[in-house]
Design goal:
This protein starts with 9 loop residues before the first helix and ends in an 8-residue tail after the last helix. The strands form 2 sheets. The protein has a 3-stranded parallel beta sheet with strand order 2-1-3, sandwiched between helices. The protein has a two-stranded parallel sheet with strand order 4-5. The chain is mainly alpha-helical. It is globular. Helix 7 crosses helix 9, helix 7 packs antiparallel against helix 10 and helix 11 crosses helix 12. Helix content is 47%, strand content 8%. It is built from 15 helices and 5 strands. It folds into 2 domains: 55 residues, 5,6-Dimethylbenzimidazole Phosphoribosyltransferase, Chain: A, domain 1, CATH 1.10.1610.10; 284 residues, Rossmann fold (3-Layer(aba) Sandwich), CATH 3.40.50. Bound molecules: nicotinate mononucleotide (NCN) and 5,6-dimethylbenzimidazole. The site of 5,6-dimethylbenzimidazole (DMD) has 8 residues, from helix 3.
Length: 355
């Protein structure tokens, strides 16, 4: 697959830097805000950048076969039925990200990519891109059937197109899926080669695994075992990104990757969120390396796989609030910071005018 991804406008970035240096403040005194302002100029190709008036969150919802086990073998603190129930909460506007997005003036859309449950009574914008119900348990079988990763990736691209055609000037990928922190950690371990299942050494897998929704140490040990078995089962197939998504990922991971790549193709900046969107970004970069220039990290989540993946992507998160909700909630919190960065360039006075 080949993608025509525009380069960021380095000329605009340099002009932004020059203007930032001339504002009424000590040189560099606005720290990271100056980097963000310059990055937005490079992304929008203008100084100052355009106002971020049309920020859109898309929550990719789906279930994961790793939750298809008795409670005694659970990898999540919550049952899988929560995924389907939460889609209705997003639709009603009452989820965490709905509330935070209202504060930030951002729109939220949830899409059913692979929810295990009947949501057919909901509008087509939610249900129209469904790939399948749930996914395979990655420790025992592939997550996806042949061709599904490509179909889900294409669906994610279409969803990005829909949001951009509706005017998005910044996109945020959100996620909802009980069990998806196990999937995210498996993708990160496989992508970074931190899993070495052949030697039976789980130490490297352990580094990627966190508590997700709040499992205890025994739950974490079960996640590590599931991921170790999945990596051993996938073997070298995991080297190729679509095979990796098929064997170890999910339809939501593939759709999120497609969404991130298409945003870049269309030249629309992205604020990544928690462990699931950052894991998808890591795989997406293997599919379209230049796409990564269009992504910023909104926040650092508590999941270790997210920090490992951010480091590999060379991204420094804007915020670190200890959030572990997912949904796009952390990235949404970073939107006012980006708006502030833009306003500084657009509105501050100039040192040269001090007299
Ligand atoms: O964004 C994060 O880093 C994050 C960390 C922990 C949990 N989550 C959310 O919680 C769900 C996955 O957690 P779990 O324990 O079921 O794997 C899923 O719906 C995620 O959106 C999200
Ligand atoms: C209630 C609930 C809401 C969520 N939002 C994202 N992940 C979630 C997990 C649970 C359990």
């Amino acid at each position: 697959m080949r993608f025509d991804i525009p380069a960021l406008d380095e000329n605009a970035r340099a002009r932004a830097r020059e203007q930032l240096d001339g504002l009424v403040k000590p040189l560099g005194a606005l720290g990271r805000l100056e980097d963000l302002a310059a990055w937005l100029c490079a992304a929008h190709g203008t100084v100052p950048p355009r106002p971020l008036d049309n920020v859109r969150v898309v929550v990719f919802a789906g279930d994961h076969g790793v939750t298809d086990v008795p409670t005694s073998a659970a990898v999540s603190a919550y049952p899988r039925e929560i995924t389907s129930a939460m889609v209705r909460v997003f639709h009603a506007g009452n989820s965490g990200v709905n509330v935070l997005a209202r504060q930030a003036g951002a729109a939220v859309r949830v899409v059913d990519i692979a929810v295990d449950g009947d949501l057919d009574d909901l509008p087509g914008a939610i249900t129209g891109h469904k790939i399948r119900s749930g996914s395979g348990p990655i420790d025992r079988t592939d997550a996806l059937a042949e061709g599904e990763a490509e179909r889900a990736f294409a669906a994610g691209r279409l969803i990005a197109d829909e949001e951009i055609d509706a005017g998005a000037d910044l996109l945020i990928p959100g996620d909802m899926g009980i069990g998806n922190t196990t999937i995210a950690a498996a993708l990160v371990a496989a992508t970074l080669g931190t899993g070495t299942p052949d030697t039976g050494d789980t130490e490297h897998v352990e580094r990627t695994v966190g508590a997700g929704t709040g499992v205890d140490e025994e739950g974490r040990a079960r996640k590590i075992a599931v991921i170790g078995a999945a990596l051993a089962r996938a073997g070298s197939r995991a080297d190729e990104p679509f095979e990796r998504l098929t064997a170890l990922g999910s339809a939501c991971a593939a759709a999120t990757a497609g969404f991130l790549v298409q945003a870049a193709v269309r030249g629309v900046p992205v604020l990544l969120d928690g462990v699931f969107s950052v894991a998808a970004a890591l795989v997406a970069r293997d599919i379209a390396p230049d796409a990564a220039h269009w992504w910023l990290a909104g926040h650092r989540s508590t999941e270790p796989a997210q920090s490992l993946a951010l480091k590999a992507l060379g991204l420094d998160p804007v915020l670190d609030l200890g959030l572990r909700l997912g949904e796009g909630s952390g990235a949404v919190q970073a939107v006012p910071v980006l708006r502030g960065a833009r306003a500084v360039l657009a509105e501050m006075g100039r040192l040269a005018d001090l007299g």
